Amino acid sequence: MQNKSDSGTAKATDSAAADDAADDSAVDRKKAGKAEARRISVSVRTLLVATLVSALVASVGVLVWLYLGERAKLDEQARQVANNSHAERIALDYAVNAAKIDARDLDVWKKNLVKGTTPELKTKLDEAGRSMEQILTPLQWNSTAIPLAAKVRSNANGIYIVDTFVGVETKTVQAPDGLQSTATYGITIDSNHDWQISDVGGIGSVVGQK
Questions:
Q1: What angle do CA 62, 68, 72 make, to 5 degrees?
Q2: Cα separation of 82 and 169, whole Å?
Q3: Helix, strand, coil % in the chain, rounded to nearest 5
Q4: Where is this region: Disordered (predicted)?
Q5: Which pLDDT tens digit goes with each residue over 15-24?
């Protein structure tokens, strides 16, 4: 009888142990499942964050690129406006001085005629000045000039062509009371060579007005 009782007890113990083991295994599986779910959740969250960060970086990069491009465009426009203004000022100053002629002191006029010009143009203007002197002296030419306007006509590779307009009052032995006129000059300026004047058109038209 004792042996049967012991055998029953042992079976009950084994059954309980098996149940405990099964419960432990189920708990372990549940924990493992939760851990796996957390890993998947973390992985998805990490992926989403990485995607958002990448998108943000890309957006910022595009904005910076657009900003820099627009800034460069504005800087170029400002530079061009400043260069145009500089060319117009050079041209108008030259035109006014070229239109001021006093037959009693033509040396001043001839110096102004070649001031700021390239060596090649200087040679041509020196010759033109000597030729015009033969006309200006007998006429007792005296003209004063005031600036009216200057406008860049074109700009190609740093070569500016500027149209200038100067108000001129001229007195000669033929017109002692004076004549009012507008002198026009087409002045070419080379910004690549220290903003020197490389060509001038219209000087002859000033002397042509009597």
A1: 145
A2: 31
A3: 65, 25, 10
A4: 1-26
A5: 544 455 445 5
